[in-house]
Amino acid sequence: MLDPVKGREVPIFREKKNDIQQWEKLIRKEVVRCEYCGGPLRMKGRGRYTCETCAKDTYDDFGKVCLYLDTNGPATKYEIAAATGVSEQKVSQYLKEKRLEIANRYND
Question: Residue 29's pLDDT is what?
Fold first, then answer.
């Protein structure tokens, strides 16, 4: 492909299948509705959504993990899974994606 201004060859950006799948995970195509009243949800961050109609909070799996850790402090992935109902594999995935941090329980 030629650049119309500079008149030289420009490389064409080709998206990889994995790149597209990553973006689709980040962008929600479906409209998210409140489980209590059916109103639209607005994302507040860290997996927390607030209904614009009834103002109730709803949490996805990541939000449940964050809420548990904020409330109870550091925990193992086994404790988190048992308390929140989120699978150990998902908690491990959040750690690998660096969405969660491992805190040091011991002071040196």
Answer: 44
